[in-house]
Structures are given as C-alpha cells and as structure tokens.
Description:
heterodimer, A: mainly alpha, two-stranded antiparallel ribbon, 2 strands, 3% strand, B: mainly alpha, two-stranded antiparallel sheet, 21 helices, 4% strand
Amino acid sequence: MKPLLTLLLLPVVGAGVILLLPAARARIVALLAASATLAMTLWLSAGFVSTHGELQLLEKTLWRPQSGSHFALGVDGLAMPMLLLAALLSLVAILASGGIRERIKPYHILLLLLEAAMIGVFMAQDWTIFYIFWELTLLPLFFLINTFGGKQRNRAALNFVLYTMGGSVFMLIALLLAFDASHVHSFLMQEMAAGLRGLSTEHQILIFAGFLIGFGVKMPIFPLHGWLPLAHVEAPSPVSILLSGALLKMGSYGLIRAAIMLPDAVLALQGLLATLAFINLIHGGVLAWKQIDLKGMIAYSSVSHMGVVLLGIATLNHDGITGAMLQMVSHGLTAGAMFLIIGLLYERTHTRDIRAYGSLIRVAPRMAFFVALAFMASVGVPGTSGFIAELHVMLAGLQRWGWPAALVSVGMLVSAAYAVRTVGCLCTGPEQPKLPVITPMGRLELAAAGILAAGIVLLGFLPAPLLNLMEASLNRFGDLFAARL
Amino acid sequence: MSWPDGWILIPLLPLLAALWIGVGMLTGGRVGEAGERGTARIALFAVGGSLLALLLLDLMALIQGPPGHRIYFPWLVSGEFRVTVSLLLDRPGLFMATLSAAGCLVTLRFSVEYLHREAGFHRFFAILSLFAGGMLTIALAGNLVITFIGWELAGLASYLLISYMRDRATAAENATRAFVTNRFGDAGLLLAMAMAVMWGAGLEWPELFLASHQHLSPPVPIVAFGLVIAALAKSAQLPFSAWIARALEGPTPSSAVFYGALMAHAGIFLVIRAEPLLWHAPVLMALLLLLGMLTAVFASAIGRVQTDVKSALIYATLAQLGLMFAACGAGYFDLALWHLVAHASWRLYQFLLSPSYLHLGEGAVRPVPEWLGQSHDLYNLALHRGWLDTLTDALITRPTMALARDARMFEELVINRMAGRPLRETLLAARAEWNDFSTVVEGSGIGVAGGRGMFGRVLERAALVLSWIEEQFVLKSSGDGLVKVLAFLGSYLTRAEQSLGETRYLILMIVLTFLIIL
Lengths: 485, 518
C-alpha cells in the first residue's frame, strides 16, 4: 500500500468515474472524491511524526536511469500543511460550484485533475516530477478559465498560460544547470541539494535566478504579476478560490525548496528578496485600494499578501519562515473565503462593482458576517490566523534588519485601508435600491464558508497544532541559515 | 495518572451552555416564553453536571487526597514563555468550586420562576451560566492566566447583569462604574503576572509557590501585592467599597446573589490561594489585617442605617468579608476558608429570601443602635457611606474627564484635520456626506479610491502613480505585449512559410541544399 500514490490517484479516479456517469451525477461524485481526498490527507497528517524533520512516507522508484529521475513522493513539515490546504480548498471550490449549470461534467473533471496535479506538486520529492506536475496544473486551469470564465476569458487564459510557461522555461534551465553542476546524476531533491552544497556563490546565484523567475511568476513577485489580476478576475469564482488560495502557494513553496538547495545564493540575494517583498506588499496593497471590481481588489490583495510570505522567506531565520508558512495557510483560507463570498454575491447580483453594493448587513447578514471576518483576517486582526502570521514575519524582520523592518507596518496600514473601506462599502451605508434581492446562502455554500471561517478563527486562537506539524522542518531551515550568518 | 482526566469539563460545561444559549439567541431560535423551558434546562443541566462532577471529585479527594495540579495542553509557547491550560484541584479550590456550583445551581433554579415571562429571560440565563463558568474557572485555575480569564469572565458577567435593565440610565451608569472599579483589580492581576514572568518563576501556581520558598527575592512581595489589590477590588474592601452598592441594580435577588454570596468571595479566595506567597510579605499581611478590620467596622456601621433590605444585606456581607481578610492578615487562612463557605451559604439563603422579607418580618424595624445614634459624625458618615463615591468622583472621575476633554480638543483640532474626518460627526451629517460621496464617485470615474485626510491623500497619489506603472509596464507591455509579439512573429512566419511555398524559393532551396551537400 502506497498512501501518497493513493492520495494522488483519488481525485483522478473521481474524474474517471465522472467521465463514465451521466452529468447529473457529476457533482456528487466530485464532492465524494474531494471529501475522500481531504479525509485521507487528514488521516496522513494525524499519523505524521512531527518530532523530526526527515521526509516521511517516502515512495521512491527509479524512473529514468539515463537522467537519474525518480518517481519519488514524500512529505515533510513544509509539504504537509500545503497538502491540507490544497485538499481543503478543492473541497470548498467544489462545494461552491453550485452556480455552474452548463457542461458540468468537463468542469468537475477538470477541477479534480487540477487538484491531483496540485497535490502532486506538493508531494514531489524529485525535481523532474515536480516540474511535470507543475506543468500539469496549467492544462486544467487553461480550460477552466477559457471555457467557464468571464467576458475576457480567452485573453486571460492565453495570458496566464504564456506567462507561466515563460517562467517555467527559466525554471527548467535552472534545473538543468543545477543537475549539471551537482554531479550526483540524480534529480532527487535531497541528493541534488547535497550535491550543490560545495558550489561557489556566483554559480549558485546564477541557478537561483532561474528559480526566482520561474517561481516568481507563480507567486507572484513584482513585476512578474501581470497575469494575475486578469486571470483572477476572469476565472469563475471557485477556480479563483483555488488559483489564489492554493496555486500561488506552489510558487512560494517551490521558492522555499530552492532556497534549501541553494542557501548561499539566497543569503547573497537576501536584500533583493526583501526589497521585492516590500514592493509587492505596497504595490499590491495600493492597487487593491484603487480597484472598483471586487475580484480585482482581492487579486491585488493577494499580491500584497504574498509579499508578506516573501518577506518571511527573505529573513532566513526560524521565525520568518514560520511566519511565511503561516501566512501561506492563512492567506489560502482568507483569500478562499473572500473569493467564495464575492463569487456567491456575483451569482446573485451579476455585478462585481463595489459601488453597487450597500447595507449587506441588513440584506444578507450571513454574507456580511463572512465578508467582514475574511477581511479582518486579511488585515491580521488578533484572534484570526492573519495576526499570528504577520506577527511572526514582523518579529523576524525586526530580528534581522532592526527598525527598518517597521516599514512593513506601512503595508499593513494600506491593507487595513482597503479592507475597512471594502467592508464599509459592502456591509454598511444606505440600501441600494437597484440591487436585486439576494437569496440567502444555500446549505452547501454555508458549509463551504463555515469551513473556511472556522479555520481562520481556529488558527487565530490555537495555532499550536499547525506549528507543531511544521516545527521540526522549520528548525532545519533555520539551522541551515543560522550556521551561515 | 490514576485520575481520569475529564475534570476540565467542570468549568467548561457552564461556558458551553452560555455559548449555546447565546448562539440560539443570535440565530433567532431562542425567543419568548415557549423557549424558556429549553433555555432553563440547558443552564441547569450544565451547572448541575459540573456540581455532580465536583461532588464526585470531592468524594475521591476525601478518600485519596486531592489530585492537585494538572496541565492539559500548552496554549501559547514562545521560547521560555509558556502558557498552559491547567487546573489546580486542591483543597481551597475544591471548596470554592463546590460552593460556586451549588450557589449558581440554586440561583438558576430560583430564577426559573422569578424571571418567568421577563423580556430578558434567555439573556439572564446565558449571563448566569457565563458567570458560573467564570467562578469555576477562578476556583480551579492552575495558573495565573487562567485565573485572569475566569476573573474577567465573572467581571463581564457582572457588568452585563448590573445593566440587565438596559433601558434604565442608572443601570447603565452603575454597571460602568462597577466595571471601571474592577479594572483596578485587573491591573493588580496583570502586575502580578508581569512580575512573575519577568522574575522567571513561571505562571503556574505551584511553580510560584515553590519559587517563593526557594529564594526570597524582592519580586515575591510585588506579585503578592498585585494579587492583594485584585482581591481587595473584587471583594469591595476599603478603599474600593463603593462599587458594590451600585452593583445591586440588577434583577433582585439573583444579581445580589452574585455579589453577596459568590463574586465578592472571589477576592478572599484569591488571598487564600496566594497564601504561600503572602507568608513572605509580612507588610502585606499587616495591610490585610488593617484594611479588613477597617472595612468590618465601617461596613457594619453603614449597614445599620440602611433602610432597604438589599443594601443592609450587602453591607453585612462586606463586614463579614472584612473579618475574613483580617483573619488572613493574622495568618488564619484556614479559618477564613471555613468562614467563607459558611458565610456564603448563609448569605445566599438570605438574599434569595429577601424579596419576601416584607411578609416574613415581624414588628417594626429595629432602631439604629445607641452608639451610632449618639455620635452625630459617625451617623453622618454611615449615612453617606463614608463619602466614598464623592471621594472617587473628586479624585478620579473628574480629573479623568478633564483629561479626556483635553484629549478630545487635541483630537478635533489636530488629529481630525490630519485624518480628514469631519469635525463633528452626527448620523445625519455622515449620511448626507455618504450621498455626496456616492454621487461624486458616480461622476468622477476615479471609483472608490478617494482619500480624505493626510494618509488618504498620500494613498491616492500613490495609487495613481502605481496604477499608471502597472498599466504601462506590467499589463500592456508584458502581458498583452507577449501576445502581440507572438502575433507579430506569427504573421511574419506565416509570410515566410507562404513564400517558401512559391516555386522560385523552392528551386532556390533545392539548389542551396545541393550546394551544401556537395
């Protein structure tokens, strides 16, 4: 029995079953498959030993001896939270897909395949299959955006794929360079990392630059974020949940893996990374403030929040990387919740213009509650997951750079500005007579929003279980750089 | 680990009941007379369950001795700093917890009839359950943080209960007064916690006791001092006595039960809990003795001139509490504990009976005793309750308000101008402004990104610049630019392809190929 392979195949099997059954059954099968995947992930995380940072549940078979590629799956403290997040958000996305009425079968098949590819990325322990799964996420996404998206869907889909492929090319070159330089004749992450230890800093920087561009497109890092606003706005809301909640995390996750492989390069580029992070934070926040389109606003706020993640990574200490991981999880939940509710609102009103809304607290109190909670969490109000994450990053920044790190609070101020503005415009103010009657949330939609809200609040009050899960792996990361500083 | 570990449910059950009733009220499920039975049942079952568990625990403690300190799980860990969820199930804790649970249960049962068809029936039961949870948490808390949480829960519940008649202005004011006075006590607890952490002794009670025995460093008295301040404020000893008379505003007699029988005793319990620390602070012990005696005399004098039953009872309670503090000050902690339990039980009975005293009382009210009636000054003092309220007003309330006025001036003249808020915001003005705002927005096309004040204007400028950069460089040139370059290359290649198909180029290619081969 290979648990990780089973986990990978669960959504694929679900997609296969949907293919065989009539369209009326597609939704229920997809829900079952996603639930089963989530249940299995939870089961795996319960059995996860958090006391050491070694890879666990490793399944390794030699795949192509000529190139030293292995089909290797495994989890550690970095991968486990991401797996949980991806499985959870996939379920939420499917729960929220009640509004899709046409071409139900291909839609759900594509969603499940996307889930499988994401899980594959987070479990891959060999750069070859990491790259393959990375590229595999593109196909379902392209079709999902191109077929089910908004008015400019074709442009958005093409733009997204071209951008990401462009980034992947750099990543591929970096991988091949690294393979060449490591002299171990293996694409296994650990062996390659060991092989690259003795490499000169200049050489490492060259390789890392490729990774930075490749992952930077996905994450996104300024100025490589051009695809993001368009794709997020045009994608159907459930896909936006996955795109922003889980797929952006592939970028930061990959960056952390690359950082572990090339520590000297990261150390040399620390200032650059921090600067980029700071630009991300401010640029995304200010532009989010300027958006009239609600989905556009959330999209830019994602840029801003991924800036916090990058900053956490750039501190290269234990607290910083903890904050980065926490922020990845927290942003997954909050961005998911925001896209979910805005998507549900859009289904009912057919407008995403922020000015068209008002007084939701009277018209649709439950939605108003979830919107307010999600935005508060994204600002980092104490008691929500965002607070714990931002606090860690902030503390780590102060440890590393002293008072200049306090500049980060400017970014948080900006995020508070747009969050409070948005909640104010949506929930309070006079009722909008032109707004159609908003039907209350259905049971499945309530369940989806409830899961995310519970996660946000639970992590805010009790982050210990998640921290324990990651602790050992994060300690390794911290030690790796503490030895070099 | 021979003891089953479900004891944490004892304080948790009433809290869960409060949550359940509260959520029911919020979602609209619990309203009106029809829901009364259900609400009462939830609260009674929860507190009754806690009491049963406590009795079981008491029995086991009698046979095998109390289970003592147990840590459930870490709640907040950051380096050396560690906060856990823990209980300290020892003799005083079990005494106090059993007393609280029994008292709350009796009060709850009493209120089922007493509050029947009252508008706030459900609210009252939620608050009372919250209070029961808070008291049990104080009694069983294993560390200072948990004690503090219980302390705050009980304080919050009392605030909500004093302002139970929320449409009465006096109720709201008295609730605020009582709440603010209690903040002094919180400051004491926070001081104790901060000192304990700085001192490195840890927050768990047993650790604190152990550390105080091991080295008599100066922080011990400071920790003890913080705890004593908290205790004095909660038990309304001098000089904090004024709040308790105001706390009687809630529905008779259930709220009085809080102050008379249970919450006022939380202070003395804290002192008993901190006994090992106090032994190392003789000055504090003397202070306790002095303040306790003073309060006893003072309160009994006041109590004798009161004409309503609740006030008379509450001052009698204060006098007894004063005696308990004095006993602690003299070192008789065990005596104080027995006194506490006996007095609380008796007072509970009296308070619950108080609405019926008019019927039960026989003959005229006893006159003021001679020693008090003879002395003009003493009588006056008693009648004015020691002018404590006036004193607080003069020394604290009015200076604070003056300070607040100055701050407000600064706010209006400096901060608001910078922040761009309207000078005097009224609801109407805000609404009119909203309308202006939305029409401006419709017209200008800038959208929602209009800023007011300094920060707003800076943000607005930044947004304009950044969005221009975004448009020009990120979206147009790289996003769509990529597509354009591809389209351009594509058309070029198509043309090349087409040309290749023409005969003259074909022949040229063949000739070239031959040339290369040859």
